[in-house]
Design brief:
11 helices; single chain; binds SN-glycerol-3-phosphate; alpha/beta
């Protein structure tokens, strides 16, 4: 399973990128707005920093034509750009046209297996079910993800399942078990993946024992 960061913060991206585990980035209008900078500059910096896929979302949802036009402009930002379109009739129409012309799309705001079937049928590169938001609406996001992964397997769909709106490390572990191809998560979740109290305790013990040996070799008591 490829690991993506769900952020538009270049500092967060640089930190996780140096771990050697970052395969891509997903952004959305909310995340870009949090940077309070020119979106063009934000997207450019991310596309340059990250080798893997970077999802950039269309913001003019007024028609399929408008999304297609903006999608083409976003795709020109870099070879690793993936265009996010919403799960709406216009989004599907624009997405299918973009895929046909060789532009990879990520169908976003997906909340059900039925919607995920539609994304696969237009040949989307990525489908993004929002697990945490499904949980927020008193439903089971992980169950929906498992169903989507099973349907894709049974049907032989090639669309990549990207588990999105992940809120904690167990979401990531369960998404991997379900067979998601990609998991995208906020910086806070990424940094929790690396932490374990026994790692910290083990490090402290190793350091203390090593320091004691140095002290002993120098003739200490
Ligand atoms: O970027 C899409 C998705 O991951 C959003 O997550 O936490 O805003 O529900 P969240």
């Amino acid at each position: 399973m490829r690991l993506f960061l769900d952020t538009a913060s270049i500092d967060e991206i640089r930190e996780i990128n140096r771990w050697g585990v970052l395969s891509g980035v997903t952004t959305n209008p909310t995340l870009v707005s949090k940077e309070h900078e020119d979106p063009e500059a934000v997207w450019k910096e991310i596309l340059t920093e990250v080798e893997g896929d970077v999802s950039l979302e269309v913001t003019d949802m007024s028609s399929a034509d408008a999304m297609e036009e903006q999608g083409r402009m976003l795709a020109e930002r870099g070879p690793n750009a993936v265009v996010k379109v919403p799960m709406t009739p216009d989004g599907l129409e624009a997405g299918k046209r973009l895929m046909k012309s060789g532009i990879r799309i990520n169908v976003t705001l997906v909340f059900s297996p039925a919607q995920a079937i539609l994304a696969a049928e237009i040949g989307a590169y990525i489908v993004s079910p929002f697990l945490g938001r499904i949980d927020d609406s008193a439903s089971d996001g992980m169950h929906a993800l498992r169903q989507i992964c099973e349907i894709y397997e049974v049907q032989g769909y090639e669309t990549n399942v990207l588990a999105a709106s992940l809120r904690h490390p167990m979401h990531v572990v369960d998404a991997a078990l379900a067979g998601a191809h990609i998991a995208t998560m906020p910086y806070e979740v990424f940094t929790k993946l690396v932490k374990h109290p026994l790692t910290d305790i083990g490090l402290e013990k190793f350091s203390a024992d090593w320091a004691a040996l140095q002290h002993e070799l120098k003739g200490g008591a």
